[in-house]
């Protein structure tokens, strides 16, 4: 009889230990799953942001591909007869009439040679 009680006690101890391990596993899952979902959402958000910033919509098949096209409001600038090495200011409007990005670099100063 005492031997049966010992077996029952050992069986109960094993059952408690198994229950405790299952509860620990559930706790781990309850902490890991929300973190994994948050990580997935962050990765999806970053991917969507990159996609929307770099995506160019497709052009219709009948549209002509022009690229960047520069248009000025004046064809030429005539300053008349001036002496060399005298500063002159000029203003004109620049517009991109093409269908792509126009990148301009502006020099610090324009030099002119005599007779031009």
Oligomer: single chain
Count of alpha/pi helices: 1
* Contiguous runs where pLDDT drops below 50 for at least 5 residues: none
Mean pLDDT: 83
Estimated helix fraction: 40-55%
The whole-angstrom Rg is 39 Å
Summarize the structure.
By secondary structure, this protein is mainly alpha-helical. It contains one helix and two strands; from the N terminus they run H-E-E. It starts with a helix and ends in a 20-residue tail after the last strand.
Structure report:
The chain has 116 residues and is mostly helical. Helices cover 46% and strands 5% of the residues. The protein has 1 helix and 2 strands, in the order H-E-E. It has a two-stranded antiparallel ribbon with strand order 1-2. The protein starts with a helix and ends in a 20-residue tail after the last strand.
Topology (elements, then pairings):
Layout (H helix, E strand, L loop, with lengths): L1 H53 L15 E3 L21 E3 L20
Antiparallel strand pairs: 1-2
Keywords:
116 residues; mainly alpha; 46% helix; 1 helix
């Amino acid at each position: 009889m005492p031997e049966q009680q010992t077996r029952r006690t050992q069986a109960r101890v094993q059952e408690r230990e198994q229950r405790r391990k299952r509860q620990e596993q559930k706790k781990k899952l309850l902490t890991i799953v929300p973190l994994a979902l948050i990580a997935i959402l962050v990765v999806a958000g970053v991917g969507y942001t990159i996609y929307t910033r770099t995506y160019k919509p497709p052009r219709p098949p009948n549209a002509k591909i022009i690229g960047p096209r520069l248009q000025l409001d004046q064809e030429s600038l005539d300053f008349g007869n001036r002496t060399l090495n005298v500063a002159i200011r000029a203003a004109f409007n620049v517009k991109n009439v093409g269908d792509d990005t126009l990148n301009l670099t502006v020099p610090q100063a324009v030099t002119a040679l005599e007779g031009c």
